[in-house]
Amino acid sequence: MVAAEAAPLAKSGGLGDMVSSQSMALRRRGVDVSILLPGYECAFERVIAPTPLGYIRDLPGGDARLWRAAMPDSDVPVLLLQMDHLFAGRGSGLYQDECGRDYIDNFARFASLSAAAARIATGVRGVKRPRVVHAHDWHAGLTPLLMKLAGASARSVFTIHNLAFQGNYPLGLAPYAGIPSELLAPAPREPRSIEFYDTLSFMKAAIVHADRLTAVSERYAREILTPHFGNRMEGVLAAHAHKLTGIVNGIDDAQWNPLDDPALAQPYSHDDLAGKHACKKALQHSYGLRVDPFAPLVAIGSRLSAQKLADVVCEALPAALARWPRVQFVVLGQGDAAIEQTLRGLAAAWPGRLGLHIGYDEARAHRLHAGADILLHASRFEPCGLTQLYAMRYGTIPVASRVGGLADTIIDCPPRATNQATGFLFDGERASDLFHALGRAFDAFAQPQTWRVLQRNAMQRDSSWQTSAARYHELYLALTGVPGKPGAHAPRNLSAAAKSRRTSTAQRHRRALADVRRIA
Ligand code: ADP
Ligand code: GLC
């Protein structure tokens, strides 16, 4: 696996959870997975028994030292790419500084990650050569192309977690990643081109050059072929749709288990919810809400961004608080500064009714999902979404937008029947759409028997990795099943072109930084 995140070493959202839990699940199936991760300071602080393996020289951002280590509470080996000038001393943001600006050298940082993966695919001392390299999201997006250029025989898989982030950079940076100019020609002339609206696109490079593509839910895999969800990449994706499948994420059901969760006030299970009542009380108390076991308690826990419709949630909150006087909200999130500010204002205006914690806090997220009755999960688009899966496992009923993975994982509750229902889905992006959906949930909450059935359904949903890990495993087997000659998948002319482009790394890195600054 090649990724910019792997929890608990480095995480900014669901990508980190997915990469680690997917790797663990694949290891349980006997797949010999390791994760290649940037050597962030936070990752070095958290890994167990780091051992140096050697150097990988001449990456786009300079020389790197490769370390092997173990992940805490997991048997997945991790390879850390130590490049302190790129990954250390940056504060807590993996991609952005404290002011929310992308790091100016992100091109060099993630081109280096991809290039290191390609080097490992061709063989480096101390690391078993992989048969499949599975890259995640744009940060690792150059990997399949750089593997071809390096003449690697390993097959490549690329998973799209979020098409809204594409890693598009000035074309002039291509030489620093060893990308030949013929691959930047306009697409109709050059089908292997990674040019995208006058930029060099990591995401497009992955879509065009990976042997197989996956998206993190079946519905998202279909949605991204349309202009509404395609982020202008729908045409590129359509040309490669034959390689694309949707595989919904699972969760780490050991880490997210209400019966055995050290963060909770009291454990509980689907057939004894007494502990959940204690968790609700503790949550109300810790957010300064009135302790009321019968008040519907709605949680919102996510990045505060346009993707999560956080702007519209802010609009819907005052109307909901006014319309339903007993309802309480708790918000745990961080993100857009203006949205954070609006929420602070709302919390001040509705003391005892709206509790707020701005910040990122894992243990709080567990307590939020355990203590709430309802999770409000609005999204303009949602590739998979993990929080609704956590919420359901904790008996907290999601009220969510009917998009992407939310629609694939939540069974909508029809009027006057619960059947297999596990939550409430709604269409639309207006405050009134959220408001009506909440109303449906509150009506059901007022009927304890109905609510109990919903909780039982939700808690018994299988969100484990079992089925999805089997699908990834099949994909790997299908890719590697026919033994290929080493290098058989590498277009010879590309690898020759790459070799002729090796220049002094330090020089190249200095020039790349200067160019990025100039262009920025
Ligand atoms: P996305 O990756 O789009 O943000 P997901 O639902 O896939 O959405 O994953 C979000 C992950 O980040 C979950 O593990 C969620 O608990 C976590 N998370 C989001 N915001 C916070 C926060 N403020 N504090 C703690 N965990 C958070
Ligand atoms: C992205 C998506 C989210 C998904 C996560 C893990 O961050 O926004 O929907 O759950 O990746 O795949």
Could you explain the architecture of this structure?
The protein folds into two domains: 220 residues, Glycogen Phosphorylase B (Rossmann fold), CATH 3.40.50.2000; 187 residues, Rossmann fold (3-Layer(aba) Sandwich). The C terminus is likely disordered. It has a six-stranded parallel sheet, with helices on both faces. It has a four-stranded mixed sheet with strand order 1-4-3-2. A four-stranded parallel sheet has the order 5-6-10-11. It is built from 20 helices and 17 strands. The protein is an alpha/beta fold and 520 residues long. The two termini are 31 Å apart. Helix 5 links the parallel strand 5 and strand 6. Bound molecules: adenosine-5'-diphosphate (ADP) and alpha-D-glucopyranose. The site of adenosine-5'-diphosphate has 18 residues, from helix 1, strand 12, strand 13 and helix 13. Alpha-D-glucopyranose (GLC) binds next to helix 1.
Features:
Rossmann fold; 17% strand; 520 residues; alpha/beta; six-stranded parallel β-sheet; 20 helices; disordered C terminus; four-stranded mixed β-sheet; binds adenosine-5'-diphosphate; binds alpha-D-glucopyranose
- Mean pLDDT across the residues is 93
Strand fraction band? Answer: 15-25%
Query: Which spans have pLDDT < 50 for at least 5 consecutive residues?
Result: 482-506, 515-520
Structural class: alpha/beta
Q: Which second-level CATH architecture of the largest domain applies?
A: 3-Layer(aba) Sandwich
Overall geometry comes to globular
Reading side by side through the largest sheet, how are the strands ordered?
A: 14-13-12-15-16-17
How many E-type strands?
17
The total of helices stands at: 20
CATH topology of the largest domain: Rossmann fold
CATH class term of the largest domain: Alpha Beta
Could you give me the name of the CATH homologous superfamily of the largest domain? Glycogen Phosphorylase B
Q: Roughly how much helix do the residues carry, as a percent range?
A: 25-40%
What hetero molecules are bound to the protein chains?
A: adenosine-5'-diphosphate, alpha-D-glucopyranose
Biggest sheet record: 6 strands, parallel
Q: State the end-to-end CA separation.
A: 31 Å
Question: What Rg is obtained from the alpha carbons, in whole angstroms?
Answer: 24 Å
What count of structural domains?
Answer: 2
